[in-house]
UniProtKB/TrEMBL annotation:
This is Uncharacterized protein. GO terms for molecular function: acetyl-CoA C-acetyltransferase activity; acetyl-CoA C-myristoyltransferase activity. GO terms for cellular component: peroxisome. The active site is at C122 (acyl-thioester intermediate), H361 (proton acceptor), C392 (proton acceptor). It catalyses: 3-oxo-(6Z,9Z,12Z,15Z,18Z,21Z)-tetracosahexaenoyl-CoA + CoA = (4Z,7Z,10Z,13Z,16Z,19Z)-docosahexaenoyl-CoA + acetyl-CoA; an acyl-CoA + acetyl-CoA = a 3-oxoacyl-CoA + CoA; hexanoyl-CoA + acetyl-CoA = 3-oxooctanoyl-CoA + CoA; tetradecanoyl-CoA + acetyl-CoA = 3-oxohexadecanoyl-CoA + CoA. Keywords: Acyltransferase, Fatty acid metabolism, Lipid metabolism, Peroxisome, Transferase, Transit peptide.
Amino acid sequence: MIKIISGHLSPPGSSEHRRDLWRSDCGAIVTKSPQDVVVVHGLRTAVCKAKRGAFKDTTPDEMLSAVMKAVMTDVGLSADKLGDICVGNVLQPGAGALVARIAHFLSGFPETVPVSTVNRQCSSGLQALFNIAGAIRSGSIDLGLACGVESMSLRSMGDPGDLSPRLTDFDKARDCIIPMGVTSENVAEKFGVSREKQDAFALSSQQKAARAQSSGVFEQEIVPVSTRIIDEDGTERELTVAKDDGIRAGTTLSGLNKLRAAFKPDGSTTAGNSSQVSDGAAAVLIGRRSAVEALGLPVLGVLRASAVVGVPPDLMGLTVADIDVFEINEAFASQAVYCVEHLGIPLEKVNPNGGAIALGHPLGCTGARQVVTLLHELRRRGKRAYGVVSMCIGTGMGAAAVFEYPGP
């Protein structure tokens, strides 16, 4: 499995060789196995603008509880069947586990089910799925819940904390504290990704997301969340959040072109071609195929391969496989455009319902959100297909996973 992913994450070489590798290896993995790690169901909250959106006053444990409970209720599974829960969360209060365990009890889950949190920056939600999948493959558990959550309204990522004074003596260690926006500029400069290409990609993301929202595509994957919000005049009111509120349907190329560079005076990374800081949560129920079938649960997808790799921390780019549908996290248009161009991927196959530029990027949630969006999209298409979830990761890493939708 790692060979498949690493072939697509490697530096430029023979693209035809990589395609042959993909075809030959995938041809060998399509047979059902009782040991397969399968996705049963996945849901997410709406993704909302940090500090200005509908979740600005909603605590992360409430968002997380909403999706955890909804996933289990939808499939009619009692929480005591879960062997473990893992939650991706980057801006972790309470030493990490507090939000996850509180959400666990807010969901009515029994104390006997364990829970953990994981922080691998932008891939935390996907890493949570990897952790649960690993426990299933090792035989430790049969079923688990992989989640991601982030409130970028209520938590800050500005303070790097206490760091070694020797940091400046090691170039790569020093590069770890470079702001992500600067790494976007590095990618654009090194790989020749122009401002025009970045803005065009951003416009496409907004248009696809607006089209998906207006046609109701997201409705089957979003859990409505009843919460409260405090208006500017201090008035508190209740509302139900069921739509992503960061999508800008009226975005135009001329409007994007007018935005100033955000990280260097002569740069190309702007607020318009970067991901939004956001709030949201997602949950994915996965299990061993034999256990899932014994319980009469559906199979939404099969985890076929996964990998996490390191790259220079001043770049943080990632390339992905040429596959039916794939979700590349749009942390910045520079990195996403480079991936698309490097592999020669048709743009219409990339984030067909928009990505983080339009929807937002709640750090710990994004990986799980991408899995939910990908598998719902593959199911909508109604035939067996493969999809990839991928993202760049702060401090110089990348992650990717291959999923199979087995068909109706």
